[in-house]
Amino acid sequence: PPEGAVPDPFAATGLTYDDVLLLPGYSDFAPAEIDTSSRFTRELELRTPLISAAMDTVTESRMAIAMARQGGIGVLHRNLSVEDQAYQVDLVKRTQTGIISDPVTIGPDATLEELDTRAGQYRISGFPVVGADGALVGIVTNRDLRFTPAAEWATTRVRDVMTPMPLVSGPAGISREDATGLLRQHKLERLPLVDDAGRLAGLITVKDFVKSEQFPKASKDAQGRLMVGAAIGYFGDAWQRATTLIEAGVDVLVADTAHGHVRLLLDMVERLKSDPATRHVQVIGGNVATRSGAQAFVDAGVDAVKVGVGPGSICTTRVVTGVGVPQITAVYEASRACKPAGVPVIADGGMKYSGEIAKALVAGADAVMLGSLLAGCEESPGETVLANGKQYKAYRGMGSLGAMSSRGKTSYSKDRYFQAEVTSDDQIVPEGIEGRVAYRGPLSAVAHQLVGGLHQSMFYVGARTVPELQQQGRFMRITQASLQESHPHDVQITAEAPNYHG
Ligand code: XMP
């Protein structure tokens, strides 16, 4: 506008998922050829472009493990102490689909009673037996208990029942092929790994090997461990949180606030990407909803930009503040800054159905972050609750009163909403609600439907790969009447579908 003129506030119209449909395109290939791999950050790719939200009712270690196994990734929430969040990272990194680098062990002088308790505590059936100097002295399993009457467990020592050295073992750093060979040749359940000095250096179990074959799409780091992300802020101990998470082995840090176009957060990203101690880790910044917001993160050196101000199912940011951008437009605008710089875009929040994943990718995203669609999974934190004969799980906004108030414990999530310095709970201005979603069973089944939906979208658009989908996908803007036509109508649904919930 000319200087001094008021810009036309109605010049731009924002569109969201329900405002558009994708046009069908010509498909000259078989559905089996479709590949859903997509970029996640500058340096990382996911076979399944799904990310579980950094929320305390969505992602802790169990969800992060399940997401990584499906080829996606989980971002551990930050409403936890630094130590607790780092411990969650550690749990994911230890859940190896191949080699356990730091197995649970037992000493030769432990009693069988202690062995039994330890087995129950860690839910494992056998242990390498390790002496005080760390040397492997034997291996013991539940089966070794069987030949000792329970009455004698309190007085019998592990050393009396274990299989002592020499044992079949492998060198630390053994290849997958060699390990498989040894397991097969000696019909072993467990293969201990030892270093040159005879100290235990790892453990391979047949079970873990089988598991890794069950998850062919799993997201893994260079050492074969599952990948995991974790959210951080900009306030207080944020730097210490970031470095502690890096020490624990986190793959991706998500500098995460409700409004990311903020000097303090951009400074945090810049520091993370320039400090020699941290710059090797991928950093995602967000959330933004405009081209200039995304550009600011690109200029700060970020590895991906997360987009979404107020689209989330539990968000009240737009009604409490009047600020936000409908999500399709927000993703498109952000991608205009990110695409030329080769920085991936993550569409965060507002997804209700699988069809919206492809819509987000066509609008300019490379991956999507999900909250409500995953909060009902078995692997999300919290118990299922029964109400009116149906099972539910709690789901709440990180800006809800429940997540931001202390209610007897420290809230670490207030700075996401720039209220870190608010000390009294009744002074908090919430930007989210607390609720529940229907229980949906294991993530594997939920992810199957979401990825299956994306597969179908790609086939209907005529795209074999995500880059093809992004290039070929075309939107048509629809009316409210068309949206009504899109959903089931004029019938009473009599059986619940696994991917459609009224
Ligand atoms: P969905 O729609 O998938 O959204 O449930 C998840 C995303 O919502 C954001 N989020 C919030 N936004 N107030 C907000 O305005 C909140 O309390 C809140 N909690 C989460 C967040 O980006 C998440 O990934």
Automatic annotation (TrEMBL):
Entry annotation: catalytic residues: C315 (thioimidate intermediate), R416 (proton acceptor)
Documented EC number(s): 1.1.1.205
Sorted UniProt keywords: CBS domain, GMP biosynthesis, Metal-binding, NAD, Oxidoreductase, Potassium, Purine biosynthesis, Repeat
InterPro entries membership: Aldolase_TIM, CBS_dom, CBS_dom_sf, IMP_DH, IMP_DH/GMP_Rdtase_CS, IMP_DH_GMPRt
Domain of life from the UniProt record: Bacteria
Amino-acid positions noted as binding NAD(+) in the UniProt annotation, renumbered to this chain: D256, T257, A258, G308, V309, G310
Protein name: Inosine-5'-monophosphate dehydrogenase
Organism in which the protein naturally occurs: Bogoriella caseilytica
Gene (UniProt): guaB
